[in-house]
Design a protein that fits this description.
Elements (H helix, E strand, L loop, with lengths): L16 H16 L12 E6 L5 H12 L3 E5 L12 H11 L2 E5 L3 H10 L4 E5 L5 H15 L6 E5 L4 H13 L2 E5 L11 E3 L2 H5 L4 E4 L11 H8 L6 H4 L7 E4 L11 H4 L6 H26 L1
Length: 299
C-alpha cells in the first residue's frame, strides 16, 4: 500500500483474500439490484484520468459512479497541466481537494504510485503497463459465477506475460485460483507464479482458457516480432479442446480475431467474454463504494 492516509488499489496484492471475497459478493448484490445503491455516494465525485485510450474501463467506471450517485469527471492529458510540466504529485494533491477518489489509466506504474503517495483520497489503478487489477477482479468474478468457487479451479493464460497476466497471478495467489501462464521465452510475466512455454501443457485440463492481444499499447514497434513469437499461442478450437469439456474462454478485450484467438472460439458457446466485460461495472462499483465509504468513515 502507498504511504497515504487513504486506502488505494494499485495492484491486486493490495487486497487480502477476505477483501476480494467481500468485493465479489458486493458486486453480485449490486448487479442483482442496480438501483439499490443509487444514493449511497450522492454528492461525491471521482476524477478519472485516462492517458491511454479506453472503451470498457472508461465507460464502466463512469456507469459505476453514476449508479452510486457520484459524478465522474473524465480527464485526458491535454486537459490537465500535466502536459505543461506539473508533477503527478501536485496533480494528486489538487484533485484530492475536489474529488473523493481518483481513477488513473496510464503507462508507468511509478506514476500511479507517486499519485497515490501524494493523494489524500483513494486512488484506483485502472491500468498501467505492469498491472490491471480492475480487470482481474472482473475475471475472478466471472470464473466464480461459472464454477461456483475459485479454490481448485485452473485458469490457463496463453500469450504475453503482460499487465493482465501479472494481475491474474496476484489474484490467483490471493484467492486459491490456480493460474498458469504459457508464453514464449522472453515474454514472461513480472509476477512470480507458474510459467510454462508450451501452451498445450498449460491448457490441458484447465477450467478456463484466457488470452489477450499480442501487441499491447506502447508495444506497436514490436508488431512483427510479436506476431512471429505468439503465432503458436493462438487459442483455436484445437487448443481449447485440450481443456475440460466444461471449460470457458476468457479475453479482456479488445480482441483481434485471427490473431490471438479465432472467431470460432471467441464467438462460440464456451466464450464468456461478454459476461466478463459486464462484470467490470459491478466490480468497480463495489470497489468505489468500499474505498470511498472507508475513507469517509476515517475522516
Amino acid at each position: 500500500m502507498a504511504v497515504s492516509t487513504a486506502r488505494h488499489l494499485l495492484r491486486v496484492s493490495d487486497l487480502t483474500a477476505a477483501e476480494i471475497g467481500d468485493l465479489l459478493d458486493l458486486a453480485v448484490a449490486m448487479d442483482a439490484d442496480p438501483a439499490g445503491w443509487v444514493d449511497a455516494l450522492r454528492g461525491h465525485s471521482v476524477a478519472c484520468y485516462f492517458a491511454k485510450p479506453s472503451t470498457r474501463t472508461r465507460v464502466s467506471f463512469a456507469a459505476a459512479a453514476a449508479r452510486l450517485g457520484m459524478t465522474a469527471i473524465v480527464l485526458r492529458p491535454d486537459e490537465l497541466q500535466l502536459g505543461r510540466g506539473e508533477t503527478i504529485a501536485d496533480t494528486g494533491r489538487t484533485l484530492s481537494s475536489y474529488c473523493d477518489a481518483i481513477v488513473i489509466r496510464t503507462f508507468a506504474q511509478a506514476d500511479v504510485d507517486e499519485l497515490a503517495a501524494a493523494a489524500s483520497v483513494p486512488v484506483i489503478n485502472a491500468l498501467t503497463d505492469d498491472h490491471h487489477p480492475c480487470q482481474a477482479l472482473a475475471d475472478v468474478l466471472t470464473v466464480r459465477q461459472e464454477f461456483g468457487r475459485l479454490e481448485g479451479i485452473r485458469l490457463a493464460y496463453v500469450g504475453d506475460g503482460n499487465n493482465v497476466a501479472n494481475s491474474l497471478l496476484e489474484a490467483g495467489a490471493r484467492t486459491g485460483l490456480d493460474v498458469v501462464v504459457a508464453c514464449p521465452p522472453g515474454y514472461e510475466p513480472a509476477v512470480a507464479g507458474e510459467v510454462v512455454h508450451e501452451p498445450r501443457e498449460a491448457v490441458r485440463g484447465a477450467h478456463a482458457v484466457y488470452t489477450d492481444v499480442w501487441v499491447s499499447m506502447g508495444d506497436e514497434a514490436e508488431q512483427q516480432a510479436r506476431d512471429a513469437a505468439f503465432r503458436p499461442y493462438q487459442v483455436d478450437e484445437t487448443l481449447l479442446g485440450l481443456a475440460r469439456p466444461d471449460a470457458i474462454f476468457l479475453h479482456c478485450l479488445p480482441a483481434h480475431r485471427g490473431q490471438e484467438v479465432t472467431a470460432e472460439v471467441i464467438d462460440g458457446p464456451r466464450s464468456r467474454v461478454w459476461a466478463q466485460a459486464h462484470n467490470r461495472e459491478s466490480t468497480e462499483e463495489a470497489l468505489l463504494y468500499r474505498l470511498v465509504s472507508s475513507a469517509m468513515s476515517a475522516s
